């Protein structure tokens, strides 16, 4: 398949699933709270994004909404933000999950979370991630396994974040999700058993044509030669959202670009970044 071939609809990859719907009345309450209550959003995990991803905690081990660095927390407590969001409290109680952490995540227009794996820094335990889209748009999607997945609102979704994935919101408006990290238990098993089919949720990405891929690398190399390193790196990082690429291929392309430019320190920096983002060299 070439890059000019039309992408086709496909089934959801096994790492993501559309689960049970949410009552429309509760959904309206959740959406209203997400748009009116949060303030002082925090930018964290800067190496993983281009600056447009902001979070606030609802459940954690300190009670501070601005404490957003995820870690194991078997007995989380409510932050002050959660006390002001009764609809979200009702949903969390209804789901009944054994929460590790819960947060709001806002992805602005033009924002990217680069290809990565999660949970690599945490101790071994069976944990899962649940997404509840509160505010979204059709240009906001997840990339996983060579597919583009739009998590529609009005339902609960499950994601396996230990698989390489990335997220973007190309044109806006802001995408806001409730994200729940939880431990395995009967409540999660029951929720995960309610898998549903969502029409048009997923689209296959085209495989890259070698010549066009070379043209993207040439464009990035030209930008780097002019001193626009950030633009050069972004040109290659964004290929993950356009084509079905091998795991870590965008990082390898950046490393190879700097190697060809005889910039050994920058090449090594991106080798290290690949290991950080994906958990291997």
From TrEMBL:
Record domain Aspartyl/asparaginy/proline hydroxylase: where: 42-183
Taxonomic superkingdom: Bacteria
Q: State a single Pfam family of this protein.
A: Asp_Arg_Hydrox
Task: Spell out the protein name for this chain.
Answer: Aspartyl beta-hydroxylase
């Amino acid at each position: 398949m070439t890059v000019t071939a039309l992408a086709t609809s496909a089934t959801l990859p096994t790492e993501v699933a559309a689960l049970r719907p949410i009552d429309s009345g509760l959904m309206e309450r959740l959406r209203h709270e997400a748009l009116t209550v949060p303030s002082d959003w925090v930018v964290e995990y800067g190496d993983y994004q281009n600056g447009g991803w902001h979070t606030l905690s609802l459940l954690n081990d300190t009670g501070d909404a601005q404490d957003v660095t995820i870690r194991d927390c078997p007995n989380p407590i409510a932050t002050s933000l959660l006390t002001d969001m009764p609809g979200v409290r009702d949903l969390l109680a209804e789901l009944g999950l054994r929460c590790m952490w819960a947060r709001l995540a806002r992805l602005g227009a033009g924002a990217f979370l680069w290809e990565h794996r999660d949970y690599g820094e945490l101790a071994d335990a069976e944990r899962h991630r649940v997404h509840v889209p509160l505010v979204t748009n059709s240009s906001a999607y997840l990339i996983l396994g060579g597919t583009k997945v739009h998590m529609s609102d009005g339902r609960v979704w499950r994601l396996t974040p230990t698989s390489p994935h990335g997220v973007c919101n190309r044109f806006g408006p802001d995408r806001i999700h409730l994200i729940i990290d939880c431990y395995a238990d009967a409540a999660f098993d029951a929720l995960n058993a309610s898998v549903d089919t969502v029409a048009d949720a997923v689209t296959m990405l085209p495989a890259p044509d070698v010549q066009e891929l070379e043209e993207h690398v040439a464009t990035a190399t030209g930008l780097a030669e002019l001193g626009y390193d950030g633009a050069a790196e972004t040109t290659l990082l964004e290929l993950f959202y356009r084509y079905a690429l091998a795991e870590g291929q965008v990082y390898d392309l950046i490393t190879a670009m700097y190697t060809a430019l005889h910039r050994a320190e920058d090449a090594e920096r991106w080798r290290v970044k690949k290991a950080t983002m994906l958990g291997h060299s």
